[in-house]
Write a structure and sequence with these properties.
TIM Barrel, six-stranded parallel sheet, binds zinc ion
């Protein structure tokens, strides 16, 4: 049975140099990645040109919100009660719809391709986001839990937090039986050691684990013919 790996990188718009370094590494290793764009950054011409220059068969853009509006955990905890600043997709349907519409407007103005995948900032979302996502033509999202209605989800597995391949393999082994292994990155936060580690991680996943790199839209296609994959990503109704 074929096993897959998805690389998910967040916060596109922040630290373009690190983004370029990260994607060059991915492409040099002949692998693939889904990258989450924050809509508000589509004012930066360097970023726009760079995104449009990418081979979309290898690098797929997904929507990572418009404003992001995500608070570090400690602040969320402190401000949870009065909600001074909201997390972008933990609000009501109307606000979610507005965010997604703003993203679509910026996207259609500046980018060549329309995203079908969504990854909420901080991976935080509530059920009010489902209808707006469907209305705005999103088909699949990254998530720790399944969605309802017509929205497919890509299960998350881990974040690249390790600095050595041994530590990575240790953590990976706890989840090695999963058919879809989704590894999250934040290119803006990667240190030199981790940039070096990515090569080893890719080699390990490809050569030792025989995983196939896949993109969100490819996974959705695959689910039409693979019943087990369909069960893993299909909505609960
Ligand atoms: Zn983010």
């Amino acid at each position: 049975m074929k096993k897959y790996v998805i690389f998910k990188d967040d916060d596109v718009g922040k630290d373009i140099d690190n983004l370029k370094k990260f994607l060059q590494l991915i492409l040099n290793c002949n692998s693939k990645a889904a990258i989450g764009l924050i809509g508000k950054y589509l004012k930066n011409q360097e970023l726009i040109n760079y995104i449009n220059s990418l081979d979309q068969d290898k690098i797929e853009i997904f929507c990572h919100g418009y404003s992001h509006g995500y608070l570090p955990f400690i602040f969320r905890k402190i401000w949870k009660k009065n909600r001074i600043i909201h997390v972008e997709f933990d609000r009501d349907s109307k606000s979610h719809n507005l965010s997604l519409k703003k993203y679509r407007i910026a996207e259609s103005k500046y980018l060549k391709k329309k995203a079908i995948c969504f990854g909420p900032p901080g991976n935080i979302w509530n059920d009010n986001v489902i209808n707006p996502l469907i209305e705005n033509d999103f088909k699949i999202m990254f998530s720790w839990r399944k969605a309802k209605q017509d929205l497919f989800t890509i299960p998350l597995s881990d974040n690249l937090k390790q600095s050595s391949i041994d530590d990575f393999i240790n953590d990976y082994n706890k989840k090695k039986d999963r058919r879809i292994y989704t590894l999250q990155f934040h290119h803006a936060n990667l240190n030199d050691k981790q940039f070096d580690l990515i090569n080893d991680v890719i080699d390990f996943l490809k050569d030792k684990e025989k995983r196939i790199f896949i993109l969100p839209s490819e996974l959705l296609e695959l689910s039409k013919n693979d019943k087990e994959i369909f069960k893993l990503i299909s909505p609960i109704n």
